[in-house]
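Tokens help. One example:
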Amino acid sequence: MAEAENFTPYSRPHIEADEMIQNTQTYFEFMDQRRSLRAFSNEAVPKKVIENIIRAASTAPSGAHKQPWTFCVVGNPELKKKIRAAAEEEEYTNYHGRMSDEWLNDLRPFATDWHKEFLEIAPWLIIVCRRNYEMIDGEKRKNYYVQESVGLAAGFLLTAIHQAGLVALTHTPSPMNFLCKILERPENEKPFLLIPVGYPAKDAEVPDLKRKSLEEIAIFY
């Protein structure tokens, strides 16, 4: 093992098994209430809330601690309008030939189409970008496990959004290059997820879906 340099002591409070079982059950029940939503309220959400959510997301682990992510936060109505128009253009193509019949059939339970009005209604859009490399003093510096690292950060982000009492949607219009142009992002950044964030609309509904059981998703050895 390499010799430790610049390390600092770390510890966490010890939690007894019974309390841990109760805590994890409570947390599961809380997270089981999380749903992807397409019906948003336009009620304002304080910028400070979004800042704290992003700070929580940035605590995710990353390859060699490179933290290869940028969270682009859009609240400007004109920018949201441009993003919606560009996303709907791509989605229209998807729903009219780019997506297979099997894919379209799998989407039917969600009653979704190329109209993405939530991109203007939600008070905030968070575009999670992956940083494939860094430019430092004119030189390319490699980032490691970029896809995995940004995926972990996105998971932390969604959890923080739910903890705040807000809802979100992991929207992935494909391709998403239009976001780089609209937001004027550098070459080393590529959009990973487009996530509208806000309160649910008062008449919001979600599909009556069931999650897989523990037996279906886990194998203990």
